[in-house]
Amino acid sequence: MASSAVAPYTTRLSSNMPADKKRQATQRFTWTGTDGNQRSFSYWCYLPPDAPPTSRLPLLLFLHGAGERGNNLSLVCKHGPPKLIEQGEDFPFVVIAPQCPFDQWWTMPQNLIGLAKLVEQVSADYPIDPERMYVTGMSMGGYGTWQLAATYPKLFAAIVPICGGTNLSQAVALQSIPVWAFHGRDDDIVPLIRSQEIIDELTKIGSDATLTIYDNVRHDSWSATYANREIYDWLLTHKTSNSFGE
Fold it and tell me: What pTM does this model have?
């Protein structure tokens, strides 16, 4: 197992313009599930302001936690990359942040289908580089990150699940995907073992899997993680030759 214990980071991302000058939009995506029912997500979208119009851009999908579910899309900007962007930070990715409906979970099969279809639709709407698509999430979104990557193992070039977990049976599906996971040692909501055990299993089968453990943050292992530029640089070092896979 590759792991490390660190104190919270305080590094901030760079900013070149006020938040209200950045290219942001809120949209709604609708799809038909395998059960024949129509479903939808509202989602928040950010476009890098200085990107050349002809360049193909990396995509970062952010999955929020359980407390941000509902029909008030501003909640998705409470944490993570959307929060930092709202505060004026620049990101080199197209960032999309869908909102999970009330009383649902990202790991529900129909929501996983919807997330994959949303990524496909955004990739059709914007000049997305299919070799540089990534997913990250926190708490419920950490679980969603693991499960989405396991369900669509050819879709993402790398993943950053934070204070989440998944069943060990998913290790084989995840083995070719670089993973950098984060968790608080004293997390009292999602125990550290939920990240530890899947990282151990992935390491055992030769995967590129790392776990960073924070001290004294309890459940909030996302604030330090998302404020650290290193994770974004790490994501961008990974590419996949696949786009939309099984």
Answer: 0.89
